[in-house]
Prior knowledge:
Elements: H1 6-17, H2 26-68
Amino acid sequence: MRATNAFDLACLKSAQHDSNENVYNLGLKQDETSRLRRIEDLKRENALLMRMVEETQLEVVRLRKLLSST
């Protein structure tokens, strides 16, 4: 993951010097949480769009049948 600001970058650089040190990086955790939330939002949006596509295709078929019967 990438550092989002100078503080995060400093934490990451200091962590690289001592691999035994436990570093908790709140900025990266928040970025990950935001990314996961965005992924879930996109999945819901995709499901709604797929539903609209299916409904539109059904409506096109219905209208073609209606037009061909007149």
